[in-house]
């Protein structure tokens, strides 16, 4: 009797699984995925916009390679680039793999459908001399030390920004977490940033930076009052002071209560109509640009954004305590311009780097993330093996690492290099 019940239960599960649609498979994958929240948000958008309208209602068991190829061709016909076509295939493969793991299908229908490869533009990397010019153009000591760390350790931006004082180990740094920026919409606690307790590939690594540089990092932490569990490069020490003229801090200490509105009084707009100060109507129709009316429109915009976020999340986002007496803690959002952890955003560091590149007057524009390319290329130029470089970069094998190895400075001609190395290139022998 028990055996019959187990058989019936198993048969019922198989029947339910056989009716699994692509949309249901994607929902199952998304519920259990360990992908970075920001990356997952991008995948979700691609599925909703490009995959679900075409294949979402189809049963996974009925999806053929022809259906997958037709989807990709449809995207190409709509003008989609190679990157979007490739990501659409990745998203569909994830849904199908979830179905395969649950016994719905035996093979992935996406396996034999080729996707366009990303075009790798092989350009040169920044030279050590050019890097020094860019580093010296950075505005703060913290930014300059962070730039040194990037080229000495080859860390990803998120890995370097997540480094804590306890990660400095003798002559090396321990890379065991990364700074993620899911945004308040996709984070679990409503914060913009999150420290993920793992690296991109899920493996910790120890990157030797030398005793001298490790001592510089420890001295920096000591002089800056950075505790063992604090990030080594908080926003307050890396970013330049906020300019009140260019980036005014929108902190309104006096709420627009009825009593304050009565105190502010009214004014006559350019159309001859009387308006109340400190109101949206006064700003929009009355054309008032005084601080009280700007506060009204600012608070309205913030409230609408908050309501929209709550509708999208389906719950209420956490709210912060009001800062008392107009003073903000050193690592708070009000003092650093960065919420929650008081860290530097990827965009914030990139803007700082690009401004320094312009100030240095280089004849090309290396991006902030390409310090990893400089790390790999400089070591390769110095004779370090690809396997050792791959370990420092956190790659599982050296195939990915070879993409990072680029010419240092203007690329030389192969024949000229060989002639120089062999002492040849003069007149031909008689």
Helix content: 40-55%
CATH class of the domain at 2-101: Mainly Alpha
Q: How is the main sheet built?
A: 3 strands, antiparallel
Q: How many DSSP-defined strands?
A: 7
Using the CA coordinates, give the radius of gyration.
28 Å
The parts where pLDDT drops under 50 for at least 5 residues are 4-16, 243-250, 315-339
Write up this protein.
This protein is mainly alpha-helical and 430 residues long. Among the domains are: 2-101, DNA polymerase, domain 1, CATH 1.10.150; 140-239, Orthogonal Bundle (hpI Integrase, Chain A), CATH 1.10.443.10. The protein is 50% helix and 5% strand. It has helices at 2-18, 22-32, 37-55, 65-77, 82-101, 128-136, 141-153, 157-161, 211-224, 235-238, 258-264, 280-284, 291-313, 333-336, 346-360, 371-381, 386-393, 398-404, 414-422; strands spanning 168-169, 172-175, 178-180, 194-196, 205-208, 266-268, 274-276. The strands form 3 sheets. The chain has a 3-stranded antiparallel β-sheet, with helices on one face. Strand 6 and strand 7 form a beta hairpin. It is globular, with a radius of gyration of 28 Å. Residues 17-100 form the Core-binding (CB) domain. GO terms for molecular function: DNA binding. Residues 121-419 form the Tyr recombinase domain. Pfam families: Phage_int_M (PF22022), Phage_integrase (PF00589).
